[in-house]
Design a protein that fits this description.
The structure is a single chain. By secondary structure, the protein is α/β, with parallel strands linked by helices. The protein has a single domain, classed as Glycosidases (TIM Barrel), CATH 3.20.20.80. It has 19 helices and 17 strands. The strands form five sheets. It has an eight-stranded parallel β-barrel with strand order 2-3-4-5-6-8-13-14, surrounded by six helices. A three-stranded mixed beta sheet has the order 7-9-10. Strands 1-17 form a two-stranded antiparallel ribbon. Strand 13, helix 18 and strand 14 form a beta-alpha-beta unit. Helix 1 packs antiparallel against helix 2, helix 10 runs antiparallel to helix 11 and helix 18 runs parallel beside helix 19. The protein starts with 12 loop residues before the first helix and ends in a 17-residue tail after the last strand. Bound molecules: ligand GBH. Ligand GBH binds next to helix 10. This is beta-glucosidase.
């Protein structure tokens, strides 16, 4: 501990890095007042506030494997990868993945090595309920999650469970999935089974991971299962049903379990920061519109005073729909009762954040956006600045200041809600000496601390990911892990990367020391873990 006390550190290196990119105006903006909740000065190692929680995150399909074991049925990723293997860039699948279905004890050992306070993982709906419905509760699934949860609790690591991280039972997809309004009942029933089985020990629940990805990329595009490509139509049906289904799960817990178990239920939004591509009013408005159409369409119904979709989105889709000859808006409306049901339905603001885009106005007459589509409705275009540092993922460039701006905008627009960072992490092509990932975590955590210095109420941080895993359509070609996983060996050996040692030190010291260099490559479990 004494190693960090009193050392003088230069913590501004990530800003210098940014200076090299085009945004010099930014610097003035980022170096604004630092007096606040986090008691540090610019020259000190930066400390996290008391009670701040550190974790890592994964998701069922990406790590579990055991795709048909002990009664589990097929989900939409099993179905996609089995019927059309080379839709995945390396023609791989999650049949075995990291084999966490069998190796969960090693996973918990890694959590202990890192000294984590919590671990965010997701439940596989079709493992727990093979028919999709609660008529059959699969004992194999219940046992697996009981074993994992109990193993974590033995070492005081809190489970944070996501109910839905993209792996819908295939049978429910055949009935329309999130485009069928009955999904509100289906999801509510599934949530109730999970609360009933595990609620005595699990205090943090998340309903749905990244609604934007579920609907826009799975229903409005071909980037995630079920690859529906129903632009401007299915993607909006999904939005409404998903929000009401989320609220159903929230209310079930709130009304029937909260007084007994005292846990919290939230949702994990995915938010990119959308920076106007120029300082013209037109591009500023374009960035706002794109924000509304992508992630604020989920945040506004839950977190605003009025509830409902952002007004600009309702207006634009209604106007375009009328112009295009539809008899009603392609964006299904909420009833007043639904607006009230959804509003306020989250105990914490779960936030997955990775990257920033530059956004400009692009009226449909000049562009290639299909009609109808969300992009056409929003009339925008977006891109990454070519100077921004690349990752292994095409959609992802490194922009730490975007994280600061995003957190600040949430604080200012939504009455400073308690935020859990439910995902943040970096992709490369693998290797143990991951200085690029170390730099990423330092710079993004610094940006997060800047926002916290100014009052953002961030209470928890989960690194994505504990270990390499199945990266959806990119298969195993993009690696996000603190631990490397060897997919060539049946044991799926996990080996800590440099970033694992650096993250461990952050967790141990509850502080960010930008100069820390691990002096070992041997992982141990510290006392008390
Ligand atoms: C999160 O998604 C997910 O929650 C997690 O499961 C995932 O592993 C992690 O982040 C890293 O991606 O290249 O145009 O086909 C982040 C959102 C979802 C964005 C997939 C990119 C593919 C877009 N990502 N999407 S594209």
């Amino acid at each position: 501990m004494s190693a960090i006390r009193g050392k003088k550190k230069n913590i501004s290196s990530w800003r210098l890095f940014d200076l090299n990119s085009l945004l010099s105006a930014f610097l003035a903006f980022c170096t604004l007042g630092l007096a606040g909740r986090v008691q540090t000065t610019r020259d000190d190692v930066r400390r996290f506030p008391d009670g701040f929680l550190f974790g890592t995150a994964t998701a069922s399909y990406q790590v579990e494997g055991g795709w048909d074991e002990d009664g589990k049925s097929e989900n939409i990723w099993d179905y996609l990868t089995h019927t059309s293997p080379c839709t995945i860039s390396d023609c791989s699948n999650g049949d075995i993945a990291d084999d966490s279905y069998h190796l969960y004890k090693r996973d918990v050992e890694m959590m202990r090595e890192l000294g984590l306070d919590f671990y965010r993982f997701s439940m596989s709906w079709s493992r727990l309920l093979p028919t999709g419905f609660p008529d059959q509760i699969n004992e194999g699934g219940v046992n697996y999650y009981n074993n994992l949860i109990n193993e974590m609790l033995k070492y005081n690591i809190q489970p944070m469970i996501t109910l839905y991280h993209w792996d819908l039972p295939q049978r429910l997809q055949e009935l329309g999935g999130w485009a069928n309004p009955h999904v509100v009942d289906w999801f509510g029933d599934y949530a109730r089974v999970a609360f009933e089985q595990f609620g005595d020990r699990v205090k943090y629940w998340m309903t749905i991971n990244e609604p934007r990805e579920v609907c826009d990329e799975g229903y409005g595009d071909v980037n995630l299962a079920p690859l529906l490509d129903s632009k401007g139509i299915g993607e909006y049906m999904c939005v409404k049903n998903l929000l009401v289904a989320h609220a159903r799960a929230y209310h079930i817990y709130n009304d029937e379990y909260k007084s007994k178990y005292g846990g919290e239920v939230g949702i994990a939004f995915s938010a990119r920061w959308y920076e106007p591509a120029s300082d013209s009013e037109i591009d500023i408005q374009a960035a706002e519109d794109f924000t509304a159409f992508t992630w604020i369409k989920y945040v506004h119904p839950i977190y605003s005073e009025t509830g409902d979709y952002p007004p600009i989105m309702k207006e634009k889709v209604a106007a375009k729909s009328a112009e295009q000859g539809f008899f009603r808006s392609r964006l299904p409306e909420f009833t007043q009762e639904e607006i009230e049901y959804v509003r306020g339905s989250s105990d914490f603001f779960g936030l997955n954040h990775y990257t920033t885009f530059l956004v400009y106005r692009n009226e449909s007459i000049y562009d290639a956006n299909p009609v109808p589509s969300l992009f056409d409705d929003a009339d925008i275009g977006s891109y990454h600045h070519p100077d921004w540092e690349e990752t292994a993922s095409s959609w992802f460039k490194v922009v730490p200041w975007g994280f600061y701006k995003l957190l600040t905008s949430i604080r200012e627009n939504y009455n400073n809600p308690p935020i859990f960072i439910t995902e943040n992490g970096f992709s490369n092509r693998g290797g143990l000496q991951d200085d690029d990932r170390v730099r990423f975590y330092r710079n993004y955590l610094s940006a997060m601390l800047d926002a916290m210095d100014e009052g953002s109420d961030v209470r928890a941080y989960a690194a994505w990911s504990l270990m390499d895993n199945f990266e959806w359509l990119s298969g195993y070609t993009e690696r996000f892990g603190l631990y490397e996983v060897d997919y060539d060996c049946p044991e799926r050996t996990r080996t800590p990367r440099k970033s694992a040692f650096v993250y461990k030190e952050i967790v141990r010291t509850r502080a960010l020391d930008l100069d820390y260099e691990p002096d070992t490559d041997v992982m141990t479990i510290d006392e008390g873990h």
